Amino acid sequence: MNKQKAILLCGNGKSGESIPVIKSWGYKVYLISEFDQDNGVEHADVHKVVYAKKPKEALNAAIELHNGGYKFDGVISLCTESAISVAHITEHFGLKGVSLETALDASHKHRRSDLFEKHKVSAPKYRVVENYKQAKKHAENIDFPLVVKPVDLSFAKGTSLVESIDDLQKAYEEAVNVSTSDNPVVVMNEYISGTEYSTEGLMIDGRLYLTAISERVFAYDIFKPYFIEVGDIMPTLLSKDTQEELEKQTQKAAHAL
User: Quick one: which of 61, 135, 59 has its CA closest to 100?
Assistant: First the structure.
């Protein structure tokens, strides 16, 4: 009899309803996540309540599970950006996955911006700052308005629009305070007005297979100076030529990472 395979979910992004679906495919499901009240997590074979985006905590939780007899065959994240934690776990246990370096490049905004600049991928101008004194100095070289954000978070957490030097210190301190890093670093981006689009797809053998383009809807007038996304519009109404250019740029960005 073949051993039943087990998948470790490192972060469920409040998508616990997917767990019974995964189990219906014949897998055991072990979960590392802070969302212990999420619908569906009760179907996991075991659940360790840990903040999945903190790599050290996630790795220690995975080791505890493994040592406790909960051995797993693969590690993925589910609807949450915990690529660094996943890479730490796959590297420790010798499982398949992207390298830790690639996970860091894709997750940390300053590393990502460095690579985009190196490979000539179209992206906003940026500065990386380690203290408020640097932030104030570099603000003069970007022009207002500008965007301030922590390098290590997603979902626009800690991100705000700064329209004048008077608002800079508050934005900088908020970005530092929400960072999960022991030594927080902040990115200051050029602000580009217009509609923002997200692309989704699969990279197979170096080729992008685009599956969706969505128009992101932000309620900036309500939540100013924060970027709070309240929905997406799909399918896109962009022209075929524009969609093809988005696909081209997304593939170029993926190769850079």
Answer: 59
Give the CA radius of gyration of the chain.
Answer: 20
pLDDT for residue 1 is more than 60: no
Beta bridge partners of 202: 209
CA distance 106 to 122: 16
Burial class (CB in 10 A: 0-12, 13-18, 19+), 77: buried
CA-based nearest residue to 59, from 27, 82, 81? 82
Tokens 């395979």: give the residue.
Answer: 5
- Tens of pLDDT, residue by residue over 79-112, are 878 999 999 999 999 999 989 999 999 888 889 9
The residue to which tokens 């590690």 are assigned: 75
Task: Name every residue whose Cβ is closer than 8 Å to that of residue 128 and which is 6 or more positions away in sequence.
Answer: 110, 113, 151, 185, 186, 187, 188
User: Residue 75: CB partners within 8 Å, gap ≥ 6?
Assistant: 7, 8, 9, 10, 62, 86, 89, 90, 93, 95, 97
